[in-house]
Design a protein that fits this description.
Helices cover 29% and strands 31% of the residues. It is of the alpha+beta class and 309 residues long. Helix 1 (11-22) crosses helix 8. One of its GO terms (molecular function) is ATP binding.
Length: 309
């Protein structure tokens, strides 16, 4: 029996499940709409009830944390008693998650999000090159940073934010910041992240699992729409994506970073600059892998299924 924790509409999860079905393996998929009852939980034995079916915890061979959370109770009317019961369930939920991570597992529920700023500091300590950056709320310091690097970008600090304003959905992609932009800023503004612009040869997305990196080269610099941020996808003429092999010394430094973060899978974004330096950008422990797997024929969905088996 394999337990998979994911979100309801995650297509990559479904692709892995198809391989598990092909191999004839039993699995249970938990998502944000799943309610789990703990019939019994002690130091030696756990019995869960999912959709009316009892599951012996000892028969679970592996656990894949993809994303999201299941629940131990349905949402009830809010009052002081129910709030207390919810808190009781949250502590039991954390213990159950911890015990799931004692199984052979891929991913970790603790890392729905990582602090990209802290990860960047750790990456530099592991010997990886990282772009210079500044977080500031004032025009004068930003102008000084712009003068130092000449070409700079601004990007979100965490996540990929989307905002609904009236009937429009708006996103926040990476953008070039010109001197005239800064001059037009207010003297003080909300704390924002600015980073030196790296003139890239290619972008690299690398998925890591079972001590192996599966990397792809994204030729985003060949299209003006995607040069600054390849996520500004050109749906008409998509970027070319090809298999790529990171240098062994870069992979070893990334593995050291994995150990510091205590993660065993995820997606890594890097840049190979025009002057042949590898710059670490970020790691996503949940990680999208379909855009690496398909174009490069890595069949990562099968590899994940085999790892769970």
């Amino acid at each position: 029996m394999i337990i998979i924790q994911t979100s309801a509409n995650d297509a990559s999860t479904q692709s892995v499940i198809q391989w598990l079905s092909f191999f004839g393996e039993d699995f249970l998929r938990l998502d944000d709409n799943t309610f789990v009852e703990i019939k019994r939980l002690d130091r030696h034995h756990i019995i869960l009830v999912l959709n009316g079916e009892e599951v012996d915890f000892n028969k679970i061979k592996s656990f894949w944390y993809r994303r999201g959370h299941f629940f131990l109770t349905k949402e009830n009317e809010k009052n002081s008693l129910n709030n207390f019961l919810k808190t009781e369930n949250e502590d039991a939920f954390e213990l159950l998650q911890l015990k799931l991570l004692d199984k052979k597992h891929i991913g970790n529920y603790k890392y729905d999000n990582v602090n990209k700023l802290i990860v960047s500091e750790l990456a530099e300590k592991c010997g990886l090159d990282v772009p210079d950056y500044i977080i500031t709320n004032n025009k004068s310091d930003l102008l000084e940073f712009k003068e130092k690097h000449q070409k700079i970008i601004t990007k979100h600090i965490q996540g990929l934010p989307f905002f609904k304003i009236e009937n429009y959905m708006m996103g926040a992609l990476t953008k070039i910041v010109e001197t005239e932009d800064i001059i037009n800023f207010e003297e003080n503004f909300s704390h924002s992240l600015f980073q030196e612009y790296i003139d890239k040869e290619i972008e690299i997305r690398s998925f890591f699992i079972n001590d192996t990196f599966y990397s792809s080269a994204i030729f985003s610099q060949n299209d003006g729409q995607t040069t600054i941020d390849f996520r500004d996808y050109n749906r008409t003429k998509p970027n070319r994506v090809a298999p790529f092999k990171l240098p062994e010394e870069i992979e070893e430094k990334l593995k050291t970073l994995n150990e510091k973060l205590n993660i065993n899978s995820g997606s890594y974004d890097l840049i190979l600059s025009k002057d042949s330096k590898y710059y670490f950008l970020e790691v996503n422990p949940i990680g999208q892998f379909a855009q690496v797997s398909g174009p490069c024929n890595y069949y990562l969905e099968r590899k994940i299924a085999e790892e769970l088996l």
